[in-house]
Amino acid sequence: xxLINDKEFKCSVTVTLDVFNDRWKLxxxxxxxxNEKRFKDLRQEISEITQKTLTVKLKELEAxxxxxxxxxxxxxxxxxxxxxNIGKKLEPLLQEMYKWGIDxxxxxxxxxxxxxxxx
Length: 119
Description:
CATH class: Mainly Alpha
């Protein structure tokens, strides 16, 4: 049995699924792999996400200890998001998902010119 945040799980896969229960969290982590980013940078890089959803997902990832939020005491306020050590361990998994997505698209779809230079 696995106990995380007052929830019991019978399988470690269900723990993982509980943390990453939507597409936005993985996208946020993917964009933080390179380096820390400010909110506006993440918003620009993940253009399909709304500001409200990004705010909610960042809070959820912070609560699950996947990302770290650092607030700098200055005017205007500066907030930077980065991956925690456990968040950084997701890189090999996300790299494999990235490669699989390319292979899948090559076999069943088309890769457009606008995607060829992305990561």
